[in-house]
Amino acid sequence: MEKAINITLKVWRQAGPKAKGGFETYELKNISTDSSFLEMLDVLNEQLVSERKEPIAFDHDCREGICGMCSLYINGHPHGPDAAVTTCQLHMRKFKDGDTITVEPWRSNAFPVIKDLMVDRGAYDKIIQAGGFVSVNTGGVPDANAIPIPKKDADEAMDAASCIGCGACAAACKNGSAMLFVAAKVSQLALLPQGRVEAAARAKAMVAKMDELGFGNCTNTGACAAECPKSVSLSNIARLNREFLCAKFKD
Amino acid sequence: MWLVNSSIGRKVVMSISGTALVLFLLFHAAMNLVAIISEDGYNMICEFLGANWYALVATAGLAFLVVVHILYAFYITMQNYRARGKERYAVSARQADVEWSSKNMLALGVIIVLGLGLHLFNFWYKMQFTEIMHMAGASAGDIALATDGVYWIKETFSQWYYVVLYLVWLGALWFHLTHGVWSALHTLGLNNNTWMPRVKCISNIVSTLVVLMFASVVVYYFVISLI
Ligand code: HEM
Ligand code: SF4
Ligand code: FES
Questions:
Q1: pLDDT value at position A122?
Q2: B141 pLDDT above the threshold of 80
Q3: Three-state DSSP state, A38
Q4: Given 1.20.1300.10, 3.40.50.1000, 3.40.50.720, 3.30.40.10, which CATH number is that of B2-85+101-226?
Q5: pLDDT at position A142
Q6: Which ipTM score applies to this complex?
Q7: Cross-chain Cβ contact A221/B79 below 8 Å
């Protein structure tokens, strides 16, 4: 196995939300194949700083695949060519010596570019604020085993809850649809008794907010689930449709 | 109205109108098969489903479904294009489990409409339309041939270019339906992890069945015309 590779990076640079952006090309030598994609960008940024150039702005936080901040569109795939990992978990050993790697920000009308590779994903927060919660009265903590929950439901709820809100689904979707994210959030709560109570109102409120923010209409192409770093399943979208339709027919 | 204003509502309209059209196609294709089994039998059906009120109301309903499906198709595709934003990706790769047809539903739909236009001209115009005009007192077309479906089938499919055009049309329909049928079920919420492979299988079976039934008549009468 190679220990170090030389690569060419084509990176989207854009000074601000309104500025016109374009690709810049950078040559990188001796990148360890053990480094993560973000560490490779750190090396590049060090290089740019030492040349007194503006470093590349990109989002990141935990660097261990749980926060959902990292968000790079690498060689035509959100979070890169590897399956079921976030950008921060992508390793340089997935690339070959001499490769040209194109790095772009998420592209979606509802995710405007802030700077370079950084986009504003506040739209997802607004959808959560519209209904992605359970209302509870404060008081004593109930016993965890007081409400029995079938293992199958608990498992499905946990799988849906693994969504980290990264936005790769909308970024991958040819329709700019946020359905996988909304479906994951609606499912995770609708499957459990605590969230069931408000399930109908939640589905309506979150879908209404999603539409208002300008996300597209889902046509079930499945690019979202294929690119999701947490492998959230497409079936959640069927559940969201079901929840939404039942809620509408009850009205 | 949520069937217009909400994204899922709009998809439900696509799904219901699409499913109704699929059911019609199954019915239509089954009747066409009769033309292979018995020419007289087929002409009897043509007479029965000529310009009587039931058939006319059903035709109008069908036309309404097609118009709704197409209007929504363009509306949804336009909205989705806009949702993608002004800047496009410089590099986009395809994912292994994303069907090609699912990304080209509108283009496939446009081919289907063009084929439909040709088909209406080849058959409907010369059959039901002629009957309607005669009932209205005009003397368009040849009324004697208006219920002679087999005559028009032979007339059309003895020409090789019509055979090619119809087969291309049916090909586009096949691609549209392999995605369309399971997508319609998914849109109505009738899917889960267990059923996902099954609905996709049902989708492939239904589309293949519809297309094979139609295509067999085209090919059969083309071969007949050669010998
Ligand atoms: C024989 C005629 C047709 C049949 C049987 C048919 C059937 C269907 C079905 C079952 C769906 C899936 C609905 C859903 O996903 O909820 C669909 C979707 C769609 N159809 Fe058609 N369709 C036909 C003609 C057309 C035409 C003429 C156009 C456009 C000019 C068109 C454009 C679309 C589009 C854009 C979609 C949305 C993609 C999607 O939802 O997956 N279709 N069609
Ligand atoms: S569903 Fe997957 S791709 Fe979409 S926001 Fe959640 S983790 Fe990211
Ligand atoms: S930086 Fe937290 S998931 Fe990648």
A1: 98
A2: no
A3: helix
A4: 1.20.1300.10
A5: 77
A6: 0.92
A7: no
